[in-house]
Predict the structure.
Amino acid sequence: KTTSTHFSPDTFNWTGVSGMVPRYHFESTTNLTNWTALQQLKMDPPANNVNFTDSNATAPNQFYRARMIAQ
């Protein structure tokens, strides 16, 4: 669940909260077909917050997703 996002000319920041899955890969793409893993994220108990920052978000059409990693 997304709790906040922030955009600037070259930075994207995302904060979220998750339930049971403790690890995610944060990925990006410019075409919704070829995804690139940017960072592995781990929730911080007990609040289960996840934070991600891409300080190189310069593409005009940049998309992101958080993909669950199997335990």
Observations:
- Residues 20 and 48 are 9 Å apart (CA to CA).
- The chain has no helices and six strands.
